[in-house]
Amino acid sequence: MSAQAGTAIIGGGIVGLCVALGLAARGHEVLVLDGRDGDMRASQGNFGLVWLQGKGAGYAPYARWSFQAVQAWPDFAKRLSGLVDVDLALCQQGGYEFFTDAAEYEAFGHDLHRQANALDDRLSFELLNHADLAARLPGIGQRVVGASFCPLDGHVNPLRLHFALRQACLASGVRITGGASVVSVRPAGAGFALLDETGRQTRASRVVLCAGLGAAHLGPQLEFRAPIRAQRGELMITERVADRLPFLSSTIRQVDEGGLQIGGTKAETDCDTETTTTMVGLAQHAVAVWPRLADLRVLRSWAALRVMTPDGYPIYQRSADHPGAFLVTCHSGVTLAPLHATRLAEWIDGDPAAPDLEAFDERRFALS
Amino acid sequence: MNAASRFRDAPGAAPRSLRLMLDGVPVLARPGESVAAALLAHSGGATRQTPVTGAGRAPYCMMGVCFDCLVTIDGHPNVQACMVSAREGMVIQRQIGARRLGDQP
């Protein structure tokens, strides 16, 4: 038995569903092939930041792409709410990076200046020493030596974003299958032949690989380089709190239901099990930043795997060998969602109005 | 034994020699029993309101799983009453909605 699709998207996470939504909006017939519940899913373990500060300090194209994305978020949220009745809890209230190490604070300040430079000074940010910060946020911990603040940063409920994208895709005519990982994809005739682990075959005119870590083994089948590795992040969430925390940071955020999510760790491993040592470190960090959190109960902890490229920037790759095959991968699927659902679809279609994404070509890794 | 409770003492049960306070009202408990058991024996009423809808809840699973027995005990919010043994003089409050953040230590 063989299914047919105009465009097959491998991967039903936030990235794949955004691309599917974008292509469906352009009139294409789209089939999303999603894997199993137990697969590694960054979309279900991530922190939910819509984040700009620090992004692309050393790479202007990424600085600009991220800047466009955070600016596009309010309209994107409106577009989704026009399609589905899901509250994304988008809140672009501005965000802090807190530092307990003076050298790290200073280095990050330099990064922000470089990022602002890459953005022709359209990035507004503040650097606050402890005294400035304490005046603005009474209750900040004594060990916080300084902080940066960017008014464009925000957060969203990532699970509801994933759900909303799925519902919006279905409402837009996208077909979604699940429960079986695609194990092979190869050029066949004028298109592509896909095979999943249950033996089900799909024929498609185009294929977009949005399989997260799965692209590492599927990519080479289409002669993509796909230099992707896993990077573990660990998180915890506390009991709900009635008070609203007066800040959002890249490591501490209060979700709309009231609990506090604490995270931001990085470990070079593909094991997605959290460790007690890291959890202790996260708890100590949170209390160092905001001592009033000291007696909060931690309800759950988990680890998830980031999908990382060697330089940390996305890969948007059109296959030279097999026209109609695309590789899309990044570790900031939430932040970049509005662009993946609009501009990236234009680029996949070869629309003359599409952005130039050559800076995110994976051939950049061959040059280094 | 409170007439409002649907729980009855087994014959020969030890006397309730401990006195706790629930929102200012005395509650009697046996040495060795959990706070949740004492609250159920005291009354069938709700011992918390959920943070989401405000619905009333009372101890349910009695084994640390369901979190429906959350109360404030001696100033500590969101304590699982089924996992804490009753002690003389405990001051208990029903858990109404989400907790507040404590004062800065």
From TrEMBL, chain A:
GO terms for molecular function: oxidoreductase activity. The keyword Mitochondrion does not apply. GO terms for cellular component: cytoplasm. Residues 8-347 form the FAD dependent oxidoreductase domain. Keywords: Oxidoreductase. Pfam families: DAO. This is FAD-binding oxidoreductase. It comes from Gemmobacter lutimaris. The lineage of its organism: Bacteria, Pseudomonadati, Pseudomonadota, Alphaproteobacteria, Rhodobacterales.
UniProtKB/TrEMBL annotation, chain B:
This is 2Fe-2S iron-sulfur cluster protein. InterPro entries: 2Fe-2S-bd_N (IPR042204), 2Fe-2S_ferredoxin-like_sf (IPR036010). Transmembrane segments: none annotated. GO terms for molecular function: iron-sulfur cluster binding; oxidoreductase activity. SUPFAM superfamilies: 2Fe-2S ferredoxin-like. Keywords: Oxidoreductase. Gene3D superfamilies: 2Fe-2S iron-sulphur cluster binding domain, sarcosine oxidase, alpha subunit, N-terminal domain. It comes from Gemmobacter caeni.
